[in-house]
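tokens incoming
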């Protein structure tokens, strides 16, 4: 699997450093609040598990599954709710945890839906941000790393459902796409 990679963009150490930094900021901002962290499946699972260990305040977690991708490397612009939250978020301080913010289509629909549930506050933390790809009017309050417009895999991020189990983030060799 590792032979399919062209370049490593974020090492395991860099990812842990980002989690410590963001965790400290979030701890400071949410002291004494009723924090609910919502992971967007499946990509954010690894980031979420590392990040919340660095947040030193009472919090609960929940998950949502949406689909905007259909196996390829380009967003289709469509968002479908596959799994909704398990409990009410009314009056809660909600923090959405995402793996990557690209066009923003996914997070725009999710934030609009969650805001309509009368939350107290709603913010986004994303490990990666591709600002050059943005189409929707949306930004994350907490960003781990801004990256150029390149398709990345690993640490939760997939290409056709594979590579999520890599412990770091990298780009794939062009022949990997060509062979599909
Ligand atoms: P957006 O709606 O275009 O912002 O896309 C967000 C979703 O697309 C992310 O949650 C990922 O699942 C997926 N995605 C966007 N860019 C990449 C990438 O470079 N590698 C893997 N998945 C990606
Ligand atoms: Mg995702």
């Amino acid at each position: 699997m590792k032979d399919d990679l062209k370049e490593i963009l974020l090492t395991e150490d860099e990812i842990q450093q980002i989690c410590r930094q963001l965790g400290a900021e979030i701890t400071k901002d949410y002291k004494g609040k009723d924090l609910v962290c919502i992971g967007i499946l499946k990509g954010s699972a690894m980031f979420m598990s590392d990040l919340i260990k660095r947040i030193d305040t009472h919090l609960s977690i929940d998950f949502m599954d949406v689909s905007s991708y259909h196996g390829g490397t380009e967003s289709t612009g469509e968002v479908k709710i596959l799994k909704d939250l398990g409990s009410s978020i009314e009056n809660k301080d909600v923090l959405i945890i995402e793996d990557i913010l690209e066009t923003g289509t996914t997070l725009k629909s999710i934030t609009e839906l969650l805001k309509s549930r009368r939350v107290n506050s709603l913010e986004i933390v994303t490990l990666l941000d591709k600002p050059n790809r943005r189409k929707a009017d949306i930004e994350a309050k907490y960003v781990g790393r801004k990256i150029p417009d390149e398709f990345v895999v690993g640490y939760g991020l997939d290409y056709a459902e594979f590579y999520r189990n890599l412990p770091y983030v990298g780009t794939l060799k062009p022949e990997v796409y060509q062979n599909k």
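note: Residues 25 and 101 are 19 Å apart (CA to CA).
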